[in-house]
Amino acid sequence: MLEVGQQVPDFTARDQNGDPITLSQFKGKKVVIYFYPKDNTPGCTAQACDLRDNIDRLTAAGYQIIGVSQDKEASHQKFIAKYDLPFPLIADTDHEVHEIFGTWQLKKLYGKEYMGTVRTTFIIDEEGKLEEVISKVKTKEHANQILPA
């Protein structure tokens, strides 16, 4: 996983519309990249809706929000439409962005092991350096975890 203070490698990935997103296109802004397991699941929906409900506060503080999961573009389009999400979602079906951030890991559930997304948020400063990692995400209060007190 990336460490605080480290320069985050630039990447190109596809958003819900198939359009390319690069980290470098947001230079000069603080970027919040949040990794979540799956569209339309209770925790992931709560997290996305909390960010949506606080988008004015987040953008006023200079943050650009980007969500990332392994879901396909069509799933992201439906998720965005259903919950009126005002930020892009990366369709990281090949896990390339997950691998950069170290969020594609071995998980266990009911005694079974599988590879999956570890819910984590990364805050990147205006120069592209990792400012903070939030690993204990509170899905219903995530915006408050991001915004400085």
Explained architecture:
By secondary structure, the protein is an alpha/beta fold. It has a single domain, classed as Glutaredoxin, CATH 3.40.30.10. The chain is 27% helix and 30% strand. The chain contains 5 helices and 9 strands; from the N terminus they run βββααβαβαββββα. Strands 5-4-3-8-9 form a 5-stranded mixed sheet. A two-stranded antiparallel ribbon has the order 1-2. It has a two-stranded antiparallel ribbon with strand order 6-7. Strand 4, helix 3 and strand 5 form a beta-alpha-beta unit. The longest helix is centred in the first third of the chain and has 12 residues. The chain is globular. It starts with 11 loop residues before the first strand and ends with a helix. The mean pLDDT is 95.
List the helices and strands and how they pair.
Elements: E1 12-14, E2 20-22, E3 30-35, H1 42-53, H2 55-60, E4 63-69, H3 73-83, E5 89-91, H4 96-101, E6 104-109, E7 112-117, E8 120-124, E9 130-134, H5 142-146
Parallel strand pairs: 3-4, 4-5
Antiparallel strand pairs: 1-2, 3-8, 6-7, 8-9
Major sheet: size, sense and barrel closure? 5 strands, mixed
Overall 3D form: globular
Distance between the termini: 26 Å
Number of strands: 9
User: How many individual domains?
Assistant: 1
Task: Name the CATH homologous superfamily.
Answer: Glutaredoxin
Give the helix tally.
5
Class by SSE composition:
alpha/beta
Overall pLDDT metric: 95
Proportion of residues in helical segments: 25-40%
What would the CATH topology be? Glutaredoxin
At CATH's second level, what is the architecture? 3-Layer(aba) Sandwich
Low-confidence stretches: none
Gyration radius over CA = 14 Å
- What percentage of amino acids are in beta strands? 25-35%
